[in-house]
Write a structure and sequence with these properties.
- The complex is a heterodimer.
- Chain A is built from 15 helices and 16 strands.
- Chain A is of the alpha+beta class.
- In chain A, strand 2 and strand 3 form a beta hairpin.
- The radius of gyration of chain A is 56 Å and the shape is rod-shaped.
- By secondary structure, chain B is mainly α.
- Chain B has 8 helices and no strands.
- The termini of chain B are close together.
- The chains are: A alpha+beta, B mainly alpha.
- Chains A and B meet through helix 1 and strand 7 of A and helix 3, helix 4, helix 5 and helix 6 of B.
């Protein structure tokens, strides 16, 4: 048996040689496949290439129509370039090392619309291998997601305003009052019953005073003394007796009057006047009103959390996006310690072990990438177009071998306004440090909307100044953003409620956000000048609406109690008036009768005095006459003639 | 149907005049390709060997298919063996480092644990498979074929519907 198929060897060798000769036409296909498969693996979205030209002579590659889809939006491109050109070093390719000294990306654009979907077909997700820890990026992403859920989604301001409105509108004051366990009506009924008892008691007491009887007795006594004539001294005694009887009647009348006055006071206290009753009823209504309010849940609006609710989702989305690129950088430029001679990279099947040798080339190195692009072009708004120019340095799969960090330095211009992107992915040290600076200076908002993703109405125009820095040092995240948007015009604020109202009324929107810490302890802080304004506005609207609601509740409460209150007050007033009138009439009659008695006593006393005077004078005359006679008798006859 | 065709072809080869060593060589080389998960430079070299050496192509194809399926199940074992060889055997690291940084060798993807494990298993099994298959072919031709045809499983297979469908639709 022959060991070798000699007949076949020579044809195979010829085929191999021909294959090598005709490799160039195939090379384009091979490079296209490599770019598409690598790009899709890295970016998680479709990668489309229009054409690939390879010149084997100098290993030069020209790719046109490169589109990399956005994994978050299947109808948008993450980035596209009209042309990508680079030359590869030949010898490292034999060692599976791609070394590119210079690459150019022309007409770079981002966020462009795709004609076809950029979503990849469903793939099996890679399972995390047993015994290997969850990646840093995974922990960061899940921590961010948790913060989103906990801090941002729990208080969406647009929904908050709707919630306030709905909550207030859902409160039916009438039903609330009808269903409430009111104390006032029962208490008013009790008060009515009490008043009725007291009235009965006072009526009985007034009756027991027998004012009429007392006055009749006094009149009778007066009448009796009216017929008396006092002409002699013998009449005086009976007259004095009558006076004494009259005085007794007078005292009785005074006693009755005193009792009436005391009763009047009691009535005055016992049957309170309408003012006092009204005051008491109002107190009861107030207690019921407070009780109803304590059972009604009115939404709280606090300044704390307002900025988080307004801008939180946008901020977390931004951090998420940046983290995604940092994750890619750490995955494809894995950090390692200098002493480490190998590194393990998990693949779909098995693990690739990469063996490092000092002073050798890394698996991938692109020394410099020249980037240029514009948002302008045919059929576009060239007057307001952004132009982009910059460089990316030292893109390397092993920075420790290469010795230099990857740097991105891109500047953008729009009508003289500038923005800069500066980034350093430094995995050369013990602790990897990835940072991204993004500064925007007085840029028009037509092409770039930093507030996309927040609960804001769509912007027609505005000016933007933004400074942001995102830094991942080891596993410690430190992200900060300061944004100022001025001269804002919105396309349509209707339907955005209070947010639209406030935004239309302010000159400037200022936002400051930060996110820092380790994955298990991320802290966030978001502040905005809108906090105070919106919370005041909400409180004003909310306060006004609540005031209206409270007034409505009070009105319903008053309506429910009004009839009972009126009845009680009317009854009480009438009864009090009646009793007091009776007492006053009684007192008045007694006073009149007393006056009559006094007059009578005066008259009789005057008559007695008159008679007494007369008797006295008579007696004096008699004494004088007698004395005269005595003297006459004792006087000599000669003097008698004098008398 | 492909499998039945392949097995039928293999039985035909067993019953033909192809030398047992050619068949065994084909099986052993096919096993090497089947046990490695990716199509690498190593597989291309094996194919060149298959073309250059006077081995039976049908047995190569059958062996590739069979060991390709077996490889799916032995991947975890291959991965462990490969990991032990590549990452845990420090004395071999300088060799791997040198190979990794050489021209062409990295295209063999020997630094993948499943590939290295597959290499190792196929290297260990090469001689046993080679000699075993050779012995089997010789024994088959000596009289084992009649015994196998009398096996219940073979008889059952021949009366099965699958075999009937195959007989109806075979070219």
């Amino acid at each position: 048996m022959k060991l070798l198929r000699l007949k076949v060897i020579i044809p195979v060798i010829v085929i191999i040689i021909l294959g090598a000769i005709f490799l160039q036409p195939l090379a384009g296909w091979i490079v296209r496949k490599a770019i598409v498969s690598t790009g899709e693996a890295v970016f998680g979205a479709k990668v489309d290439v229009n054409s690939v030209k390879v010149r084997m002579k100098n290993m030069f590659v020209e790719i046109t129509g490169l589109e990399i889809g956005d994994r978050n939006d299947e109808w948008k491109n993450l980035v596209q370039a009209d042309s990508m050109k680079f030359g590869m070093r030949f010898y490292p390719l034999l060692s599976k090392k791609l070394i590119i000294d210079d690459m150019s990306l022309e007409n770079l654009a981002w966020g462009t619309t795709r004609k076809t979907s950029g979503a990849l077909p469903p793939k099996k997700t890679r399972k995390v291998k047993d015994g290997k820890e969850e990646t840093l990026s995974g922990r960061l992403f899940s921590s961010l997601k948790g913060k989103m859920k906990g801090e941002v989604e729990s208080l969406p301001v647009m929904n908050l305003t709707g919630d306030i409105k709905n909550t207030l509108e859902s409160i039916d004051a009438e039903k609330l009052v009808a269903g409430a366990d009111l104390k006032a009506p029962g208490r008013i009924d009790a008060m009515g019953a009490e008043l009725k008892d007291r009235y009965s008691k006072y009526i009985a007491e007034v009756g027991s005073l027998d004012i009429t009887g007392s006055i009749e007795a006094a009149r009778q006594a007066v009448n009796e003394i009216g017929d008396i004539s006092i002409s002699r001294q013998e009449d005086i005694k009976s007259a004095q007796e009558k006076i004494s009887a009259l005085n007794n009647q007078k005292k009785a009348l005074e006693k009755t009057s005193g009792r009436i006055n005391a009763l009047k006071k009691e009535i005055g206290a016992g049957l309170a006047d309408t003012k006092k009753i009204t005051g008491e009823i109002d107190k009861l209504i107030s207690q019921d009103y407070k009780s109803i309010l304590s059972k009604v849940k009115l939404p709280e609006v606090s300044k704390k959390g307002m900025a988080g609710a307004l801008f939180g989702r946008m901020w977390y989305d931004r951090v998420n996006k940046v983290l995604f690129y940092m994750k890619l950088a750490r995955k494809y430029m894995p950090p390692r310690k200098k002493k480490q001679d190998k590194i393990e990279i998990d693949r779909e099947r098995g693990t690739d072990i990469v063996f490092y040798r000092k002073e050798s080339l890394p698996g991938l190195l692109v020394s410099r990438v020249n980037v240029s692009g514009t948002t302008g072009g045919e059929g576009k708004d060239n007057a307001n177009a952004f132009s982009v120019e910059g460089r990316v340095f030292d893109v390397s799969s092993d920075q420790v071998l290469h010795g230099k960090p990857m740097r991105i330095d891109i500047k953008g211009q729009q009508r003289g306004r500038q923005y800069t992107i500066g980034s350093v992915f430094d995995h050369t040290g013990e602790v990897p440090v990835d940072s991204l600076l993004f500064n925007v200076d007085n840029v028009t908002l037509t092409e770039f909307n930093p507030l996309e993703g927040s609960d804001f109405p769509a912007m027609e125009s505005g000016k933007l100044d933004m400074d942001s820095v995102f830094k991942l040092e080891g596993d410690r995240l430190d992200c900060r953003m300061s944004m100022e948007v001025s001269r804002m015009k919105f396309t349509d604020t209707s339907g955005t409620g209070i947010i639209g109202e406030v935004l239309s009324s302010i000159d400037k929107l200022e936002i400051k956000a930060s996110l820092y810490g380790r994955p298990d302890n991320l802290k966030t802080r978001i502040e905005s000048n809108l906090d105070d304004i919106i919370s005041k506005k909400l409180k004003a609207i909310y306060g006004k609406k609540v005031k209206e609601l409270k007034a409505k509740i009070k009105s319903e409460l008053n309506k429910a109690i009004e009839s009972k209150k009126k009845e009680l007050i009317d009854n009480c007033g009438a009864q009090r008036k009646e009793l007091l009138a009776k007492c006053s009439t009684g007192v008045s009659d007694i006073q009149k009768e007393k006056a009559v008695i006094d007059r009578k006593i005066g008259q009789v006393s005057a008559s007695i005095k008159q008679v007494t005077e007369k008797v006295k004078k008579e007696a004096e005359r008699k004494v004088k006459e007698k004395a005269k006679d005595e003297i006459k008798k004792k006087l000599p006859s000669g003097l008698k003639k004098l008398f | 149907m492909f499998w039945i065709k392949l097995i039928k072809k293999f039985v035909k080869i067993l019953q033909s005049n192809v030398s047992p060593m050619q068949i065994a060589g084909g099986m052993a080389l096919g096993m090497m390709i089947g046990l490695t998960p990716f199509f690498t430079l190593f597989d291309m070299l094996i194919i060149v060997l298959v073309i250059a050496l006077n081995v039976n192509i049908a047995s190569v194809l059958l062996s590739m298919a069979v060991f390709g399926i077996i490889g799916q199940f032995t991947d975890p074992l291959s991965g462990q063996i490969g990991y032990r060889l590549l990452a845990q055997t420090e004395s071999l690291v300088p060799i791997w480092t040198a190979l990794y940084n050489m021209p062409f060798v990295p295209f063999m993807r020997f630094n993948n644990t499943v590939v290295m494990g597959g290499f190792a298993i196929s290297a260990v099994l090469f001689m046993p498979v080679l000699l075993g298959v050779r012995k089997f072919v010789i024994a088959y031709r000596a009289g084992l074929n009649k015994k196998i045809e009398n096996w219940k499983i073979v008889k059952a297979f021949k009366v099965s519907k699958i075999y009937d469908i195959y007989k109806k639709f075979r070219p």
